[in-house]
């Protein structure tokens, strides 16, 4: 799912990309996403172009993601039912 991370005057939009696309992002967002182990994601930063703020906004966006187990618990299902 799409996720928006905000830090100070910077926002970073994280979107899933199709398999094999790789990481499409600016320098500091790319560094954070690759360090997190993500493979197919697009990122767009809006607002301040301070590289530190972009990195923190990217981290905030990643913190907002939920695991399959969390989604299953919210829906009252088992993780296997969510994954199909």
Give an overview of the whole structure.
By secondary structure, the chain is an alpha+beta fold. It is 42% helix and 25% strand. It has helices spanning 27-35, 51-63, 68-75, 79-83, and strands at residues 3-7, 10-16, 23-24, 41-47. A four-stranded mixed β-sheet has the order 1-2-4-3. A hairpin with a 2-residue loop joins strand 1 (3-7) and strand 2. Helix 1 packs parallel to helix 2 (51-63). The chain starts with a strand and ends with a helix.
Give the topology, please:
Elements: E1 3-7, E2 10-16, E3 23-24, H1 27-35, E4 41-47, H2 51-63, H3 68-75, H4 79-83
Parallel strand pairs: 3-4
Antiparallel strand pairs: 1-2, 2-4
Helix pairs in contact: 1-2
β-strand percent reads 25-35%
Total strand segments: 4
Anisotropy-based shape: globular
Give the CA-CA distance, first to last residue: 17 Å
Show unreliable segments.
none
Evaluate the radius of gyration.
14 Å
Helical fraction? 40-55%
* Largest sheet: number of strands, sense, barrel closure: 4 strands, mixed
Name some characteristics of this structure.
84 residues; four-stranded mixed β-sheet; 4 helices; 25% strand
Give a brief description.
The protein has 84 residues and is an alpha+beta fold. It has four helices and four strands; from the N terminus they run βββαβααα.
């Amino acid at each position: 799912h799409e996720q928006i991370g905000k830090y100070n005057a910077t926002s970073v939009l994280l979107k899933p990309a199709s398999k094999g696309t790789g990481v499409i992002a600016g320098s500091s967002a790319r560094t954070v996403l690759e360090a997190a182990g993500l493979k197919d994601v697009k990122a767009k930063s809006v607002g301040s172009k301070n590289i530190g703020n972009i990195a923190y906004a990217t981290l905030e966006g990643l913190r907002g993601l939920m695991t399959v187990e969390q989604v299953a618990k919210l829906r009252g299902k088992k993780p296997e039912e969510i994954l199909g």
